[in-house]
Amino acid sequence: MKYISTRNSFALVSGAQAVFKGLSDDGGLFVPERFPELGDLSRFCDMKYPDLAYEIFKLYLTDFSDGEVRNAVNSAYGDNFDTPDIVAVPHLTDEIYMLELWHGPTCAFKDMALQALPHLLTASAEKVSDGKEAVILVATSGDTGKAALEGFRDVPGTRIMVFYPENGVSEMQKRQMTTQEGDNVGVCGVRGNFDDCQNAVKEIFNNSEIKKKLFDKNMIFSSANSINWGRLLPQIVYYIFSYVRFLKDNIIENGEKINIVVPTGNFGNILAAYIAMEMGLPVNRLICASNSNKVLTDFINTGVYDRNRKFTATVSPSMDILISSNLERLLYLLCGRDDQIIVKWFGELKQFGRYQVYDDVRGKMGKLFYGGYCDEEGTIRTVKEVFDGYSYLLDTHTAVAYSVYKDYKLKTGDKTKTIVASTANPYKFVNAVYKSLTGESPIEKDEFKNAEIVEKITGVKMPAALREMRNKPTRFSKSVEREEIASAVLEFIGDVK
Ligand SMILES: *Cc1c(COP(=O)(O)O)cnc(C)c1O
User: Fold this and answer.
1) Taking a C-beta distance cutoff of 8 angstroms, is the pair 110, 265 a contact?
2) Most buried residue, 190, 215, 337, 456, by CB count within 10 Å?
3) E strand or H helix at 127, and its extent?
4) Could you give the domains of the chain?
5) Torsion of Cα atoms, 3 then 71 then 468 then 471, to 10°
6) Atom of ligand 1 at shortest distance to CA of 423?
7) Cα 286 from chain centroid?
């Protein structure tokens, strides 16, 4: 299996190169040259999660040995998760199933990929890095940062530096990152939003002066953001796993289509669902849910992508994004793998903050994808509504997804069984959850006190991994302007002027 850059169809690389490089030199993202067929899904019925992950990974990482893939899946999906199945799929009604993806060490769905990525990356490094140390740069809207730090901490041959928007993450998310342990980690706040962080990091990746400095130190950049194929691949697995679970439990018939609702930011999670569909997962609609930063809703409905708008800091901060990187992959696939069109559109995005896709691309997208959004009030209302109705506690991101699904259902009357991707544990965003349940803003500044009150109201326990944060000392308190991100990186690699 080879991988192709979305901006140059002639740039073919191996799986190891795609994972190790993260981003193509031309600024494009790597896409597999084809999508292998899953075949009859019932053959996966008795597989445990790591075994299914093994099967899927093997289809794409053909340059990895069986032992390397086996090691990756076994190390990634074990008792570092607090449920033996790795994911849980409770239902609210006969139609609505919650795919809980937050049972890993940092309580957000990012663990599903970032527990595996370090193993994939170190195996890749052995093949292609020439003994260079991998410097992993991460821009985070909150959850990727912690999950990547946890995944890469003290992994030999790597060091990792995370940039987060100082005022754009929840208190718990910030605490999780600034208390991170490990000798190869760095964390830095940025006085800007997620897009600023992501743009700065992408530019550093392609800055030849900085790359040369790294080269001289026998280092090389890599990425743990969802632009890395090694992030997307593990995310394909849980959609297949939940479908197969439904088959086994006789909830659906073999071949029956399902809907998948995904609270979306950088378009990674929903793209993984799309890829699963391309491989043969029976899907009716992919429902793309946005918060007030509804660039994607507008794009799906009009074919115009326009980031020229006000950026809103919301109670679902991991989705506060105006440039959804992985959309580039979808568009590349929908326009028949035409790299020149992608160069044109994404050039326009960079220059004017806007592009418009052709009608046939918009048509294809609209047939499969439904785009909707939920504002702040709606998010807060939904957490309470679902708790009152089903005694089920949603986090704010999943609440956005649920609310958009409800609108979809009202509009279409579609009775297809539906999976809602549940992307974070509610205690990561406890102040908003508190407000939703009590109708009042929390009086306490201390989120752990608020968590105790939420526990009392709901009977839902805060996970131990978050509770532990309370007494951890802060290790990283630095913050910089966005223009200073590059020099913070140089400092981190020991190149201080
Ligand atoms: C990252 C994140 C999202 C958005 O996922 P994308 O793959 O970026 O679209 C949604 N919810 C939570 C809790 C997240 O951490």
Assistant:
1) no
2) 190
3) helix 117-128
4) 96-107+230-461 (3.40.50.1100)
5) -80
6) 13
7) 16
**Phi then psi dihedrals of residue 493, to 5 deg:** -90, 5
- The sign of the torsion formed by the CA atoms of 298, 231, 202, 4 equals negative
Query: Look-up: residue for tokens 């043969």?
Result: 280
Q: Which residue has the tokens 């530019």?
A: 203
Dihedral angle computed from the Cα positions of residues 434, 435, 437 and 442, in that order, rounded to the nearest 10 degrees: 50
Atom of ligand 1 nearest to the CA of 110: 15
**Taking the C-alpha atoms of 55, 57, 63 and 67 in order, what is their torsion angle to the nearest 10 degrees?**
-70
Provide the strand spans (E) within 132-282: 133-139, 158-165, 185-191, 219-223, 258-263
| Residue to probe by mutation, ligand 1, list 99, 112, 138, 143, most atoms within 8 Å of CB | 143
Ligand 1 within 6 A of 226 CB?
A: yes
Q: Is the CB of 329 under 6 A from ligand 1?
A: no
**What is the torsional sign of CA 38, 40, 43, 46?**
positive
Query: What are 70's two structure tokens?
Result: 């086996």
Q: What is the pLDDT of residues 352-369, one digit of tens each?
A: 999 999 999 999 999 999
Q: Is 298 left (phi over 0), alpha (psi -120 to 50) or beta?
A: alpha
Which ligand 1 atom sits nearest the alpha carbon of residue 141?
Answer: 1
CA distance 272 to 279: 11
Three-state DSSP state, 242: helix
Query: What is the tens place of the pLDDT at every residue in 237-291?
Result: 999 999 999 999 999 999 999 999 999 999 999 999 999 999 999 999 999 999 9
| 43 contacts: CB under 8 Å, gap ≥ 6 | none
Q: Select from 301, 371, 305, 309 the least CA-distant residue to 344.
A: 305
Measured in Å, residue 140 CA sits from the centre of ligand 1 at: 10
